[in-house]
Structures are given as C-alpha cells and as structure tokens.
Write a structure and sequence with these properties.
By secondary structure, the chain is mostly helical. Helices cover 59% and strands 4% of the residues. It is built from 18 helices and six strands. It has helices at residues 29-35, 38-41, 45-61, 67-86, 98-110, 123-159, 179-204, 223-229, 239-244, 247-274, 301-324, 339-362, 367-375, 381-392, 396-413, 422-428, 442-448, 457-470; strands at 164-169, 172-178, 206-207, 234-235, 281-282, 364-365. It has a two-stranded antiparallel sheet with strand order 1-2. A two-stranded parallel sheet has the order 3-4. Strand 1 (164-169) and strand 2 (172-178) form a beta hairpin. Helix 4 (67-86) crosses helix 5 (98-110). It is elongated, with a radius of gyration of 31 Å. The model is unreliable at 1-5 (pLDDT under 50). The structure holds arginine.
C-alpha cells in the first residue's frame, strides 16, 4: 500500500516523535530534557499494557479495527509484556514517555497495525487510566501492609494484656494502663487508615479511558466494556473531568500522609521506650544499629527513619496539591509532575509499614521496669480520689483536694501513695479506712477501669477479640 517514492506523509520513523507530523524541526535538547518522563513513568508499563489490551479488544468488538489488526496488536502487546517481565524491554528516552515507548515498540514488532491502537484514545485519557490503576493498586498494597502491622500489634497486645505501664499525658505519668491497651490504641489508628484507603479506592474506581483528549470520541466506543475489563465499577461521566482529575492521587496521598503520621508517633514512642532512662522495651540486633565511635550504643535507627519519612508523605501531598492548584480544564502538562511525588510517597510508606511491622514483632517489653514506672509519680492518685467519691460520697472536687494533700504528704515523707500510713490519710479525712489500699496499686487501678474501651485487661481482651475477627 505505501508508496515510498511519493511525498505522502509517512508514519513516524524510528526516533521521530509520534506527534511529529506538523513539525519540521526536532525539539531542542533542553526541551527534551524537561519533557521526557520515561525515567519515572516506566513504572506504569504494566498498567499501560493492560489498558491497551482492553482498548484493543473493545475497538474490535465495536468494529473500529479488523480482527487481523486486533490479533496482531494483542500478539505484540503480549510480547511486550514478556519483554518487560524479562527486563529486556527497551525504555528509550527518544520516545518521551511510557505510552509512546510501548507504541513505538509495538510498531517495531507488528508494523503498521500498531498505529490503529491509538484510535479513539489520547495520551490524556491513557495516562489518567494508567496512573489511576497504579494508585488503585498502591491503595490495595498499603491497606494490606497496614493490616499486617495491625496483626503484629494485636499479637503483642494479646501477650501484654496485663503488662502494666504508666499511661502519660503531657508525657508526665498520669494513670497506669496496660501495654496491651497502649498497643491497641495504634490498632485503632491504623484501622482508620486502612478504611481511608478503602474509601479512596472505592471513589477512584471509575475508568477515564475513552474520554480521549478531552471531549470524548466520535467512534462507537464502549466505555462500559473497557471499564469492566479493567476492574472499574463504571466509566467516569464527564470527559473533561476524566483527563484533568487527580483527586484519586490526592486522596491516596492524604490517606498516606495520615498513616505516615501515625507511624511517626509509634516510632517516637519506640525511640523513647528504648532509651536507658525509660528502658521499657528491648529491640534485638535485627532492628538496631551500633555507633562507629561509641561501642556501648544500640540505636533505634529504623524507628527514627520511619519518624522522618513522614516528611516524604506529607511533602508529596503538598507537592501534588501545588501542581494541581489553579490548573484550568482540561489536561495540562503540569500533570506529568503528579507521578514522582506519588511514587516516592508510597515507596516510603510501604517500606515504613514493613519496617514497623518487623520492629513491633521484634520488640520485647521489660515488664518489671514498666510495672515499677506504672506506680511511680503518684499515678494512682485519681483512684484515691475516686474511692473517696464512691465510699464516702465526697463531691469529686473535694476528693480531688484531699488527694492533692495526700500526694503532698507522701512527697514530704518520701513514699508513694500505697506506702502512706493510714494515720496520715486519716489526718486528711478521718473516715478513710484500710479498704483504700485496695485501689492504690497500679494493678488494682488498671483492673478497675472496666468501662467500655477502658484499660482493664478484660476490656483489652474484648477489643483484641473483636479486631481478630475484623482482620480475619
Ligand atoms: N507523559 C504525559 C503525562 O504524564 C502523558 C500525557 C501527555 N499528553 C499530552 N497531550 N502531551 O502526563
């Protein structure tokens, strides 16, 4: 068919831009340098192939391409899939991005039929599709990693449902709690994180393929067919929105930022608990590093790095927000800058989640040290006040006052509250009896907090049981 001697335009030659028909000169090197995205969007290769396979199948069914062309295209795409898996696919800068790299390779493999794949499609809906599928998978992977972390926390919590530790407010000893209860607080946080990813995933699960450049397509395409083939609930309903929306990435990054922030809080606690001054937990050699100069050191580097990586997660959300801010409809090249922050944020988050899971499984509480600390700092003062309210019917404010005086007296006598003689207590409130000592130990304090969600071991075990069922 092709007449090589005529002046008729030919399909783009090797190395020539796919869009080069109306151009007579090559782009400047600097233009290429700023434009090229294959260095990072090669991570969308598998999504790009999946989208192309679904698109080609749909074009065949719609009668837009012949069965011979469709077969050649599917064959070529399968070969490309094998090349990618084998690591032999040539990712080439001269083809700018992943979409044109795949198409250029397809042309090398199957010839002219490759040029029909791009019928009723644009890179604008193509990249929107590929990136959305990548983010969708990232949400699934992250949610699974969060659940693995929750299971690790649950296992530690179950083993420590009765292990006493000080509960803090203002990082000052407040009331005794159990280590299991403390760990279960993180199970709740990460549970919300996982559900945020699930929400985001459900909302993003609409296919933009077929929106084409921005206005839709004059070909009789079936967007429902491609949406279904690619696992989407439905096609997106507005072609302009389809190619210009990156909410899905923003939402995933926002969920990721919150999750990274939770990780950083747990990481910070691990750092604190690991200090010799606290000595609440031990980490094995597997999750610590030494110092090159101070032989005695055992540093919780993984926890510190997790604490720091929240910067990447929050920064990426900020970065993409700034990229999207003020962009007119529909697609603008600015949006090519959506991928790097998103990839980096999820890389950091996934690594952090894995490392945190490893650390949680690794850590061993020093129960004696924690129990001793649980009783320090007059941590059962509230229990004393509550006893006065319950047993003597004192108004809580008066009970608070009496208890304050008891703490002051204990400080003067250099003892703790359970060590304060009854005679001393009776000087403050004559109706106090021996029974008060039943509530002044950390174990009694913890056991008494049976309200729903409280730190009493039975309550903690009930929550562990509930979560085990949820995470089945
Ligand atoms: N590499 C581009 C991106 O990531 C693909 C879309 C390009 N579309 C265009 N009209 N130049 O956004």
């Amino acid at each position: 068919m092709t007449d090589s001697s005529s002046d008729a335009p030919k399909p783009p030659a090797a190395g020539q831009a796919m869009w080069g028909g109306r151009f007579s000169d090559k782009p400047a090197e600097l233009m290429q340098a700023i434009n090229v995205s294959i260095g990072f969007d090669r991570r969308l290769a598998l999504q790009d192939l999946a989208g192309s396979r679904a698109h080609a199948a749909m074009l065949l069914k719609a009668g837009v391409i012949s069965s011979e062309d469709a077969a050649a295209i599917q064959q070529g795409l399968a070969t490309i899939g094998e090349e990618i898996a084998a690591g032999s696919f040539p990712f080439r800068e001269e083809y700018e991005d992943i979409h044109m790299n795949v198409e250029a390779r397809l042309r090398e493999l199957i010839g002219a039929a490759a040029g029909r794949l791009h019928t009723a499609r644009s890179r604008n809906d193509q990249v929107a599709l590929d990136f959305r599928m990548w983010v969708r998978e990232a949400c699934e992977r992250t949610a699974a990693l969060i659940q693995a972390l929750q299971k690790a926390l649950l296992a530690k919590a179950e083993a420590n449902a009765e292990t006493l530790m000080p509960g803090f407010t203002h990082l000052q000893p407040a009331q005794p709690v159990t280590f299991g209860h403390h760990l279960m607080a993180y199970v709740e946080m990460f549970g919300r994180d996982a559900s945020r990813f699930a929400d985001a995933r459900a909302r993003m699960n609409e296919s933009p393929l077929g929106a084409a450049a921005l206005a839709g397509s004059p070909f009789p395409i079936d967007r429902h067919m491609t949406a279904e083939a690619l696992g989407f609930a439905r096609p997106t309903a507005n072609s302009l929105d389809s190619v210009s929306d990156r909410d899905f990435a923003l939402e995933a990054l926002a969920a990721g930022a919150i999750s990274a922030l939770h990780l950083s809080r747990l990481a910070e606690e691990i750092v604190i608990w690991m200090t010799p001054q606290f000595g609440f937990i031990r980490l094995s050699d597997a999750f610590t590093t030494g110092s090159s100069i101070m032989p005695q050191k055992k540093n919780p580097d993984a926890a510190e790095l997790i604490r720091a990586k929240v910067g990447k997660a929050l920064g990426s959300f900020n970065q993409l927000s700034v990229v999207m801010k003020g962009l007119p409809l529909a697609y603008s090249k600015d949006m090519q800058e959506d991928k790097v922050p998103t990839f980096e944020a999820f890389d950091a988050l996934e690594l952090s989640l894995r490392a945190m899971t490893g650390m949680v499984l690794d850590l061993e509480p020093n129960a004696e040290r924690m129990a001793a600390a649980a009783g320090a700092g007059f941590s059962t003062a509230t229990d004393l006040a509550d006893w006065l309210v319950r047993e003597l019917n004192l108004p809580f404010r008066d009970a608070h006052h009496v208890t304050g005086a008891a703490v002051k007296r204990a400080e003067e006598l250099n003892c703790d509250l359970p060590g304060l003689p009854l005679a001393e207590l009776q000087k403050l409130e004559p109706r106090i009896t021996q029974g008060i000592y039943d509530v002044l130990t950390p174990a009694a304090s913890v056991a008494s907090r049976k309200s729903y969600g409280g730190t009493a071991p039975d309550q903690v075990r009930a929550q562990i049981k509930r979560w085990k069922e949820v995470l089945q």
